[in-house]
Write a structure and sequence with these properties.
The protein is built from 2 helices and no strands. By secondary structure, the protein is an all-alpha fold. The N and C termini lie far apart (about 35 Å).
Length: about 70
C-alpha cells in the first residue's frame, strides 16, 4: 500500500513539473511572438498572458482532436 502511495506521489510530481514546463514554454512563445522593445505596459502584459492561454487551449484542443480522429480511423 505504501509503495503505491510513493509511486502515485512520484507520478503526480512528474505531471506537475511537465505542466509547469509547458506553461513556461508557451509563455516564452507568446513573448517571442509579441516582442516589444522597452518596458511592457499592464495591457501588453495582460495580452501576453492571454495569448499564452490561447496557445495552451489550441494545443489541448488539437491534441484531443487528433487523438479522437486517430481512434476513429483505427
Amino acid at each position: 500500500m505504501m509503495e503505491n502511495l510513493i509511486i502515485a506521489k512520484a507520478r503526480q510530481d512528474a505531471l506537475q513539473r511537465k505542466v509547469e514546463e509547458r506553461r513556461l514554454r508557451l509563455q516564452e512563445e507568446a513573448n517571442r511572438r509579441l516582442a516589444a522593445f522597452g518596458a511592457l505596459t499592464a495591457d501588453e502584459q495582460e495580452q501576453r498572458l492571454l495569448y499564452a492561454n490561447v496557445l495552451e487551449y489550441e494545443q489541448d484542443h488539437v491534441s484531443v482532436t487528433a487523438s479522437v480522429r486517430h481512434m476513429l480511423y483505427i
